[in-house]
């Protein structure tokens, strides 16, 4: 059986609750192929790499806390979701993540332009894995304006075309939205009004509308904790309903039967097995692991003090409303100053690289571009021209002189024309 996690934005903590249940009571399900989109793809990757669930929960809550502290939430100019995700994933995922997830992790992406859905499962480096996960969670404006580049194409959130990728009929689907998904909240016993959006089933209910509204706007700490616990309970109900909580002997029998017949039936399950009955009874009283509960409780306590209570009062909310315009302007100014400082640092380091590689640049160029002194040259070029020269130097150093494609010749001619205009 394969497992698929849907994209859901800030509701991704639901996947943490589901993952904790699967790891505790049915870990053999996570040994097969895992697929997902957006937050679901990130959860699947972390599960394959065995990232501690409490660490996943802590980092997710840190991003939520950062977003809720901003004037416009995650849409504030000084809030960069992609940078937040990249920093944490780069730290948590192992250096050989590409070897671990290749052929096992299937990420749903939307190609730009064209809007074609692409399922990516092969990776050559850790950076490619990181860029793929960022692309799968990239929502224009919300995450930035330029989608990540993977190979020759740019990609954005896979939820636009396939929010819940399914590999075969034996795929277990997981979503925090009530609907026809295998593991999901059950708002009504009888599901009357259903819609299908990007391969993800949604039930038209008041609770589901609230969940959809919270995809890009993180809810209160208590709501997040409740959502995580609900994920655990929904997964546990699914496992018990389908007799998937077994002892080691029954698991071995089932896996052998599934491999032999290539079917998803319940063959291999022994209803009279005492160990299986004990495991099911034990699961009913245990609940979500304490390590995750501790992280959630700690996050709730940090938002339940007297000072936070004053900030949540109606009077303070009214004051914030009147100060909103000033806070937005200051937030934009802060984002501009920070981005400018980053650009200046990048250009400074780039100019240093040009000085170090200037001899290679002179030797590789087809004609002499530089007649003035080195100091005058370095001071005279603009930031754009500096980057252009640097990237051309890198291109010449990495190019194969014995063989060039037509595209390489066109690229070289275009760059040289721009360089000629500089001097």
From TrEMBL:
Domain spans labelled PNPLA: 3-170
GO molecular function list: triacylglycerol lipase activity
GO biological process annotation, one example: triglyceride catabolic process
Motif residue range(s): DGA/G: 157-159
Cellular-component GO terms for this entry: cytoplasm; lipid droplet; membrane
Residues annotated as catalytic: 38, 157
Protein name as annotated: Patatin-like phospholipase domain-containing protein 2 isoform X6
Motif placement: GXSXG: 36-40
Lineage: Eukaryota, Metazoa, Ecdysozoa, Arthropoda, Hexapoda
Keywords: Hydrolase, Lipid degradation, Lipid metabolism
Residues spanned by motif GXGXXG: 7-12
């Amino acid at each position: 059986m394969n497992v698929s996690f849907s994209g859901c934005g800030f509701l991704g903590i639901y996947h943490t609750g589901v993952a904790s249940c699967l790891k505790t009571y049915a870990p053999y399900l996570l040994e097969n192929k895992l697929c997902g989109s957006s937050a679901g793809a990130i959860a699947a990757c972390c599960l394959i790499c065995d990232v501690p669930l409490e660490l996943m929960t802590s980092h997710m809550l840190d991003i939520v806390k950062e977003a809720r502290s901003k004037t416009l939430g995650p849409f504030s100019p000084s809030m960069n979701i992609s940078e937040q995700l990249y920093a944490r994933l780069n730290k948590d995922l192992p250096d050989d993540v590409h070897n671990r997830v290749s052929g096992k992790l299937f990420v749903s992406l939307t190609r730009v332009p064209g809007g074609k859905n692409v399922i990516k499962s092969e990776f050559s480096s850790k950076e490619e894995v990181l860029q793929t996960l960022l692309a799968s969670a990239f929502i224009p404006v919300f995450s930035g304006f330029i989608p990540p580049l993977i190979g020759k194409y740019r990609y954005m959130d896979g939820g636009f075309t396939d929010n819940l990728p399914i590999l075969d009929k034996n795929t277990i689907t997981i979503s925090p939205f009530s609907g026809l998904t295998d593991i999901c909240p059950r708002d009504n016993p009888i599901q009357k009004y259903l819609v299908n959006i990007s391969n993800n089933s949604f039930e038209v209910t008041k609770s589901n509308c609230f969940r959809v509204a919270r995809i890009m706007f993180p809810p209160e700490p208590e709501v997040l904790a409740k959502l995580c616990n609900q994920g655990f309970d929904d997964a546990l109900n699914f496992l018990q309903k389908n007799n998937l909580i077994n002892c080691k002997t029954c698991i071995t029998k089932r896996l052998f039967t599934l491999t032999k017949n290539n079917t998803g039936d319940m063959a291999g399950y022994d209803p009279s097995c005492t160990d299986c009955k004990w495991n099911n009874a034990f699961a009913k009283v245990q609940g979500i692991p304490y390590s995750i509960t501790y992280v959630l409780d700690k996050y709730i306590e940090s938002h339940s003090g007297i000072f936070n209570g004053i900030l949540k009062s109606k009077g303070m909310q009214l004051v914030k409303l009147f100060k909103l315009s000033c806070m937005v302007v200051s937030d934009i100014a802060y984002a501009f100053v920070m981005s400018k400082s980053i650009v200046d640092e990048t250009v400074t380091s780039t100019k240093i690289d040009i000085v170090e590689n200037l001899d290679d640049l002179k030797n590789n160029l087809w004609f002499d571009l530089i007649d003035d002194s080195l100091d005058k040259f370095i001071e005279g070029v603009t930031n754009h021209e500096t980057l252009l020269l640097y990237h051309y130097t890198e291109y010449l150093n990495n190019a194969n002189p014995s063989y060039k494609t037509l595209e390489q010749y066109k690229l070289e001619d275009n760059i040289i024309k721009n360089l000629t205009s500089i001097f």
